[in-house]
Amino acid sequence: MKVFQGEKRLRTEGGLSVRDITDEVAEAVLRNNFLQTLAISMGERRGLADLGFQNRLIHTLEASGLLDRGLEALPSDIEIIERRQHRQPLTRPELAVLLAYSKIALYYDLIASTVVDDPYLSQVLADYFPKTMRERFAAEIEGHALRREIIATMLANATINRGGSTFVVRLAEETGREAGEICQAFAAAMGVFNLSALINRIDALDNKVDGEWQLTLYLLIQDIIRRQTAWFLRHGRFQEGLSTVISRYREGLGILAEHFSALQDEKQRSQTEAAIAEFIAHGVPEDLARQIAALAALSAAPDIVSLALKFARPEAEICQLYFQIGAALRLDELREASETLGQTDDFNRLAVNSTLETIAAAQRSLVGKVYELADEGAPDFKAWHERHRAGFARARKSLDEILAGGELTLAQLTVAVAHLRDLAQEE
Questions:
Q1: For residues 371 and 384, what is the distance between their CA atoms, to the nearest angstrom?
Q2: CB-based burial, 134-144: b 16+ in 10 Å, e otherwise
Q3: CA-to-CA distance for 393 and 288, rounded, in angstroms?
Q4: pLDDT tens digit string along 14-47?
């Protein structure tokens, strides 16, 4: 009774409500439990595709002194080889162990970095506290003595929950960048594509769509997060801070999204509409289905915005030329065919990702070549094509043969990339 009276007194005096704070803290704890369970479920669904990266993570954690593989009952290297042979991925308890340790390791890496000092992440600090405290003690929260530790904890949790336990180790292998830089790029990707709001809409589908299909949507978003984080790691310029980068690219993405349908060719529109129809058939609301499908189709948006900034040209104009080059060289087909190559081997996945980046670099370079030829005028792909007819024909012939030859191999992909690189380097 005294507790209730005390709470009532605090309410009438304009103070904090103990009950409200308790409810918010309980909700936050439940939310975190949900996110961790979801992360484990996504890891379980990916199965053998992530096994190689999971073993790399185990080795990394052992090398740091954080993990004792035997103590935590995780499989040895030999056992992992045997599991792959018998197509037995890690179990949920094993995935839970890796999830926990990957967060601990990432926390220490973030504390040692300067990323947590970025002003943009002040919102992460504020989100740690109940709403009633944020409203009344904003200044005190901003100057909290454990500011860096709280931000590091929140950012590590978000990165691993959304990207998966192997997120940092695989991007470190792929790009050679540090854990702090990876989290910075993760924050940029989440902010530019406004993925938190999109994920919240998928959360709201609980008990409205089949659980396995809902998990498929989460995995689609995780793929986008991984792809865009890798892009910002390679091409993001964070000297001016996260806020500047996010604002710059989010504005360009908004312009592209507004003209999205008109910028696609007939084949692209057909593929997007097919994806939308599939989402709707599984109970996803049409507006959300269109949002997810457009986001997946606009995976090249950062490239396009970056080129628009470089050449000071409209995003829609750049996008049209970018898509035109891609269609002429069947680059989207090549990317799609390459996705199956790295499904069961981490080295293949790293090699595929590297070649996909080379394809994107060639496409960017070709956009630049067309603009160089156009000088100050409108870009004319036909004029550039006419000037480089022989080189273009060689590249297209090779790509046609590769894509017509059945299931793509890593060797074929490497050859295709070599032809594209040669074409992009022609004067």
A1: 9
A2: eeeeeeebeeb
A3: 41
A4: 455 666 677 777 887 888 889 999 999 999 999 9
